[in-house]
Amino acid sequence: MPERDVFLTEDGLKKLEDELDELKTVRRKEIAEKIKQALSFGDISENSEYDQAKNDQAQLEERIAKLETMLRNAKIIDEDDITTDVVGIGSKVLVKDLEYDEEMEFIIVGSAEADPYNGKISNESPVGSALLGHKSEDIVEVVVPDGKIEYQILTITR
Predict the structure, then answer these.
(1) Is the CATH number of domain 6-76 1.10.287.180?
(2) 33, 76, 111, 134: which could join 138 in a potential S-S bond, CB 3.0 to 4.6 Å?
């Protein structure tokens, strides 16, 4: 399967690099120490500490590999390239839910940085992908599991 681009802001890139560094330098040593300690208990055939440490090691190595792949395929979103004419990755979008007459603000980010609880939605999410390419004042229909939502785009900023 071909690797796909991972869109990141400078902040997002730094967070992933910091996490990778932490996993490689600190967590690897901690898990190696747990394995060493578990081995000192003797017979590993019924050693739950050893089994757990090996599972932790496998999960850690999987996360490291995933982060390395993401960083290798990272496409940095340059704030100077973000337009306020149409919604794109990196745009901050103020929308109005036409059914409930509520305003919400979203920042469109790549899937690696998505954090819906903080208003950062993925360009691949239903709302994010529906907003992409639209202009201020456009009414956008979003298909969600519960049906359809209509948003009117009020402003687009960086």
Answers:
(1) yes
(2) 134
Q: Can you tell me the mean pLDDT for 110-119?
A: 92
Nearest to 7 by CA among 67, 70, 65: 70
pLDDT at 4 over 90: no
Tokens of 122: 């993925």
Q: Tell me, what amino acid is at 106?
A: F
Domain boundaries defined on the chain: 6-76, 79-157
Tokens of 44: 């590993």
Asked if domains 6-76 and 79-157 share a fold, the reply is no
For the domain 79-157, what is the CATH code? Answer: 3.10.50.30
Other Cβ atoms within 10 Å of 70 Cβ, number = 20
47-56, pLDDT tens digit by residue?
788 889 999 9
Type of residue found at 116:
P
Residue 39 near residue 57, CB atoms below 8 Å: no
